[in-house]
Here is the input.
Amino acid sequence: MGERAIMEVIPMRKALYLIFAVIALCVASCSGSASRYNKELCDAERLIQTNTDSALLVLEAIDPSDLKIDSLKAKYHFLKAYGHMKQNRSMIGDSLIGFAHNYYRNIDKVRGVRSGIAFAWYKFWVGDTPGAISMLDSLAGLPDVPDSIMMQTLRIRVLLGASEYQGYPLIPYAKRLMALETDSLRKIEAKYMLLTGYEYAGEMDSALHLVDELVDYARTHNMGDKQFMFELERAQLLTEAGRNQESNHTVTEIFRKAGPDNGAADYLQFQYAINALNTGDIRAASHHLALADSIASSLRRDDDAYFRSYSNLLHAMIVFKQTGRIKLIYINGLNNRRSERYNRMKASQWESERGALQQQSRALGLKAESEHKTVIILVVSLVALLICGIAAWLIIIRRRREQENEERIEALQKMVDEYKSVPESGKEELKDSSALRVVMLRQLGIIKMVAETPTEQNREMLRKISSIEGETDGELVDWKNVFEMIDNLYSGFYKKLHFKYGDILTPKEEQIIVLMLAGFSTKEISVITGQTTSTIYVRKTSIRKKLGVPEKEDIVEFLRKNIKS
Here is the structure.
């Protein structure tokens, strides 16, 4: 061991001794408070199912930074997120529910499933609905889960599945839920979700059979609102099945029983309009849609974005049938209304989160005022020692990372050198049509690895990589090299392309074409060219228009046939 290494080990040992001392002090000071926090958390857990408000009040009086034990941290974040879920409150600040779920999933089945449900709802709240559904699918597949908890899992699963317009994937979960539900109203709800699954799967006969059962049940049990909803659903299903006259008859019966001024009169007139359009009666469709719009304006006022999402589309279709033209005014109007609704929703969400933060701040203030001065001094002292320990530990970690970075740079340099000089023995590999993908993806992988650690050495490495095999004009890929490989692999394709269409195609469009020729997907092309996927789609449309490629014909195949040797 060299002198430098010995000098580094000595402060490391001192730092470790300091950390152990800090830990010992923290354990001694926190052992008494741990039991108190455990009792408070147990009280909150006892209340969470029956009195969620009280449970959350108990939790708000706890400062999560005081919870040093994983079991207490997991219970706190689980109960906090679960309570927010039950009350449908903002879960933006509940990201640590993932920590709680990871803690419980292998040691406590009940808490593991419930924390998983809360974790799924958190994913849904932050916009990751597919991730939420995947989480719920894994929970639904667990064995020996109590029925009450499995029912909760399945309810949320079918709800999110319906929100994603799932058909066949939704059906088995809805059937399981129906079989488990014991409450009659819950069973009706499960049957309705199963109906939704059949509808999205295109199984109209099964969907209509279920909706008839639901209508009969609601009529028998004098459930007027439910009967109204199920009969409207039946009218819509009949339209989907192509039975427009039967749908009209159902709508007429609803109007007869509920009156012309019922709360869904705009949707009923809209259903008339759809049926008329389906049967080719454009005049009747326009008439009923105008009535629907008028009713919606007075009935729903500014909160009509959902109705307009259907109405504007139907307006566009009717105008197209009448004039042969698409009018963007209806589409633009829909987008504007959705934007307004989204802004209102975000404002409400921000207000809710601000209120939660203010409430938390008040709770912490009250707690600080009640703390004894000597306890505060002790805490400050412990924090100071802890900071010293963390600082020492960070020094150790940084030294280790520096060593790892040096090793990584050496390895990356070797990869770059190998990339820059392909041996003669490997030239034949470049004859294969997959060689371009291999070389480019290898280059991009190196770039990604270097960019993840932006040290000065790595930045220098990135500059070297950006200019491999010549100038790249600041791009990640050497396109001159790529075009040469394309010509070698595909009989001079790029030269022919540039000769014939170079005056109308941009360099970016030529890059996209050769990558399409090499078999890259749209997503891969977006990564390689540093553009968004939507931009790639726009550029493909532009290419199709410039070259005169028919809508249903493949661009590459069109060019293969039209570029002369």
Observations:
- Residues 121 and 127 are 10 Å apart (CA to CA).
- The longest helix spans residues 373-420.
- Confidence is low (pLDDT under 50) at residues 1-10, 335-352, 429-434, 467-472.
